[in-house]
Amino acid sequence: YMIESVALYNRTRELIKSRRNISYVRTTLEHIGPHSSFIELTTSENKYQVKKVYDSRALLPKEVIATPVLQSFQGWRVTFDKDVCVPNEMRLMDFSIPQNNATQFMYVLPTTKNEALIEMTRFDRTVLPEELARQHLKNYLRAMGCDYKINHIERGVIPMSQHGENHHRDARVISVGSRAGKIKSTTGYAFKSMFEHAQELVQDQYPPRLARLSFAQKLPNRFALYDFLLLYILKFRPNWGKEIFERLFQKQPAHEVFEFLEERSTFRWEVQMFAKLPIFKFLWSVLFSTISYVFSAPQRSLPLLVGSCVLLLNYFFPGAGNAAGLSVLIVMLFIVGIPHGALDGYIAQGKSKLLPFVLRYLTIMLLVILLWMASPLTGLVTFICYSAWHFGQTDLKEWGLSSTFLSSLWGALLLGVILISHTQEMNTVFLQMNVPILDLAPETVVLVTRGLILVSIILGICLRSVPWLISIIAIMVGTQLSLALSFGLYFVLQHSVTGWNHLKTSQEWTNKSMWVRSLPFTGGAMVLFLLVFHFDKNSLLQWSSYSLVFLSALSLPHIYFMSRFYQKT
């Protein structure tokens, strides 16, 4: 039941040395670059071209709610002065020690009749203090009633997170180990799942034909929900852990508990198990984890919340909701919407090249405007295509679904629902722009819109993505609002806020510093808008058409640099 890592590593190195066709290189990997027929590995000393890559590099998990729970431990390998151990019997999760406002327990793993590994483990957001571990280990050994000698001390910290999994967009780059999500987040158990994953890889369960489209990310299931609820308890009520784990092992046979921990139990058994646990503690976790999830990423729920409020206001006070909704969107447009599209340039060029970059940025915008003037239809189609790609890329980056195909598909679906459901309003704008209108019967509009929504919902369910489903529900609410509100809810409150947060996190900026940095870009774009279109305050329709052209001109350089930014991050 215990395999020493040193012995495993040494045996692996012996096998590698015995094979002439295997080279062992110790170096720093700087970049993994996919090409059509090979993968290029760039190291600090050389470059290698390979057909497949197995990637086990550790990642710091990006936790959604607060900081991650840590499994920290200290173990003493001891020799006793008499036989006190049964070699084939181990003691797991002994909660008889003081908890110190955390979840703490002991392991006893005998190797002989008088030798064992005595280990103290702590589940908490803080690491097990050295002195506290030493004190509890001494007291625990003293209670065993014999003298001992410490042969070796081991320490470690394992993040207990559901967000450590990471997969490359090219399926020829295969994640293994913790990077493949093979550590059970609520226990830290990993060896068996890693071993089984290695067997699958040997049996070629990941064939090269998937090299252009990777869905390797493990989709969440009911066990992920159980882990999420327990981890939330361990984060904010760590002193509850002892009661939960003790009840779990006291009320169920041990072998059935381990089947559950290995995610092999049946749903019927799980219902019976939860009925014997402190259910109100889990109901508390359901309620407050949901609230925390909503506030941890407000852009996921803001469009749905604001859209629903607009509908309610319109129901009780006709027209008031539209006015309030547009006011919110206009304010947020100037706070986040336009500025978020300006900061990519700062990342791409830096302060030393600010002015030349602004000029190039504005030149690209001018070329887009000239395209609209030459052919409004071409300008419109081009704008929709690259906007769909960009919206999808940003959302899927946020949701942890790395797929070029899914990015394009999601972007097309969300824009399709927004635009098709507002065909009449779009046609009014098209007439102002000399673009052919969409001649669709009302019944056809409803049918197509419902079809796109249905496809989106099915995909969200298949991918088991809560943010995806929340987004499509918000877009469904938007179909009952005006085009400006429907598109604005998504663009300003979801897309712009998401992009803003991505830049803020990656660059470690503050909101204030981001607003200051965005001023030259935002100001330049607004000046160009005023000069070219001579802003007409008296014509809402004309202003709408101008806004569409202006947005498309501003978007193209922004999309290019954000795409490069996402590839790097």
Would you give an account of this structure?
The chain has helices spanning 5-17, 130-143, 191-202, 222-236, 241-251, 254-261, 267-275, 279-296, 302-316, 320-340, 343-349, 354-374, 376-399, 404-420, 423-433, 442-463, 466-478, 483-507, 511-533, 540-568; strands at residues 29-34, 39-43, 47-50, 53-55, 69-80, 91-94, 103-110, 115-124, 148-160, 173-175. With 569 residues, the protein is an alpha+beta fold. The protein folds into three domains: 69-160, 2-Layer Sandwich (D-Amino Acid Oxidase, Chain A, domain 2); 222-295, no CATH class; 297-568, no CATH class. The strands form three sheets. A five-stranded antiparallel β-sheet has the order 6-7-8-5-9. A three-stranded antiparallel β-sheet has the order 1-2-3, with no helix packed on it. Mean pLDDT is 86; it is low at 206-217.
How do the helices and strands line up, and which of them pair or pack?
Layout: H1 5-17, E1 29-34, E2 39-43, E3 47-50, E4 53-55, E5 69-80, E6 91-94, E7 103-110, E8 115-124, H2 130-143, E9 148-160, E10 173-175, H3 191-202, H4 222-236, H5 241-251, H6 254-261, H7 267-275, H8 279-296, H9 302-316, H10 320-340, H11 343-349, H12 354-374, H13 376-399, H14 404-420, H15 423-433, H16 442-463, H17 466-478, H18 483-507, H19 511-533, H20 540-568
Parallel strand pairs: 4-10
Antiparallel strand pairs: 1-2, 2-3, 5-8, 5-9, 6-7, 7-8
Helix pairs in contact: 4-8, 9-10, 9-17, 9-18, 10-18, 10-19, 11-20, 12-13, 12-20, 13-14, 13-18, 13-20, 14-16, 15-20, 16-17, 17-18
